[in-house]
Design goal:
364 residues; globular; 16 helices; mainly alpha
């Protein structure tokens, strides 16, 4: 028998955790002499008060959807993939190679090819830790986090020594050809009389991210492979007894996870920068962990959590720009949300479980 209703686990616990993080953040803002109500109002206005703000919020949310889904798929197989940052970096390398070295007649064809390239490079970078975990017993947390550093060093070498244009001092590739530039929200939704999302980086990748949420939902809950992944994640002993191979599931789940993380590059590399630069991931791989935790590893939950963190990123940038609140404090506020929705989950869960158990006994 479940200790609490499913709706309480999916909705109530994240909402209470978010509320606690908000209260503590307000106290921190108050302690440095700023008005927390005005700060929240500025964050809401900056992130949601205009199409420009929405454009940045949805751009960040797109990144977090891909990395959140990547972590969520691994979670279902009881694997803690914290290598999304490196897998997204290598996904960017795949996108750059597809866009720079193959001539494309139209962005739509290039988008499909770039998505395949990004997923392939991201999956390849996840394959080695997956093999080491499945066949050699190396802990997936250790190997994936080490591969983040290796990916950063490898990308730095590629950009400085291999892919940098002749005569350029910037460690970045050349700009992608005009034919592969993705439609932005500004070009998609503006009219001659009303320009929307002016200058914001949100682009058609947002809809690809939503499609990825739907595909992951169908994979995990509507296919035999998804059933095997969830079964292995629930109980390895039972899964082995049912004929499910731990080696196969570990490698497949990590390949899917790495591919999803790599797909982030179609948004930040192909859609926004239109070239590959150093540190293009900007920590989105690590934010994906919090997004998956807060979203309870469900694609719809990941979608909502990604929107929340997109709001925090854009709202925090506006807060740092228009107030004396330092940028570092914005990072602290984001960290508090991650802390309460992830690491301190049991602080909210355990009292609620006792409450619902007491209510159930009282009803009997």
């Amino acid at each position: 028998m479940e200790k609490m209703p499913k709706w309480a686990d999916v909705v109530l616990i994240p909402v209470i955790s978010l509320l606690l993080a908000t209260i503590l953040s307000a106290l921190v803002i108050l302690a440095i002499g700023e008005n927390p109500i005005e700060a929240v109002n500025l964050m809401v206005t900056g992130a949601l008060g205009s199409t420009y703000g929405w454009g940045y919020t949805l751009y960040y949310a797109t990144n977090f959807m891909f990395t959140g889904l990547a972590v969520a798929v691994a979670f279902h197989a009881r694997l803690f993939n914290i290598g999304g940052e490196g897998q997204a970096m290598l996904g960017g390398l795949g996108v750059a190679m597809v866009c720079l070295y193959i001539p494309w007649p139209h962005w739509s064809i290039a988008l499909v090819a770039a998505a395949l390239g990004a997923a392939l490079f991201g999956a390849a970078w996840a394959a080695i830790p997956a093999y080491l975990q499945a066949k050699r017993g190396s802990h997936i947390v250790i190997t994936t986090i080490m591969f983040n550093f290796i990916a950063a060093a490898f990308l730095n070498y590629m950009l400085v020594n291999v892919m940098r244009p002749q005569g350029s001092q910037d460690p970045a590739t050349a700009r992608f050809p005009e034919a592969v530039h993705l439609p932005t929200f500004q070009s998609m939704f503006s009219t001659a009389e009303n320009v929307m999302f002016r200058g914001a980086p949100a682009n058609i990748s947002f809809f690809v991210a939503i499609l990825a949420c739907v595909v992951v939902w169908a994979l995990i809950w509507r296919t035999r492979l998804g059933y095997e992944i969830r079964s292995y994640g629930k109980t390895e002993t039972g899964a082995v007894y049912a004929g499910i191979s731990p080696v196969r599931i570990t490698i497949i789940a990590m390949l899917i996870s790495g591919g999803l993380a790599g797909l982030m590059a179609i948004n930040n590399v192909m859609g926004e920068a239109e070239r590959l630069v150093l540190n293009s991931t900007e920590g989105a791989g690590f934010i994906g962990i919090a997004v998956a935790l807060m979203g309870r590893s469900h694609p719809f939950g990941v979608f909502l959590a990604a929107l929340l963190f997109g709001f925090l990123y854009q709202g925090g940038a506006e807060l740092a720009l228009w107030t004396s609140i330092p940028r570092e404090l914005i990072v602290v506020i984001q960290a508090l949300v991650i802390l309460f929705t992830g690491a301190l989950d049991n602080m909210v869960r355990m009292p609620l479980e006792k409450l619902f158990l007491g209510l159930r006994k009282g009803a009997e």
